[in-house]
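WARN no homologs supplied; continuing
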Amino acid sequence: MRITSQLICQAADQLKGFVGLNRKTGHYIVRLGEDSFGMDVADDGIIPTSEFVWAAGPGQAMTLKRELIQLLLEQNIDERINITEPLRVYMNRRDVPEISAVRSLVQG
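OK structure emitted
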């Protein structure tokens, strides 16, 4: 199967769970439920994992950040948060620049 940037973007958008910055340790943590962070993560700092991996880029584009995906990989819960083969390929292809895309909400 040929991995395209479209498949990689789709895989990023299908990530499950939530990410929050632990104020005490200064490290990002991943949880499957938004309500399972406890007092160490501010409610307004909890974001869906599928949004966490994207950062504002040039203009209206967003960039799929390898360093943020790496933070997820370090949690060692790949299957639970739905890290799939397209994201693994993206992480292994350092010779290819990070993907930038204009994202929009599609009503389904």
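The chain has one domain: 5-101.
OK
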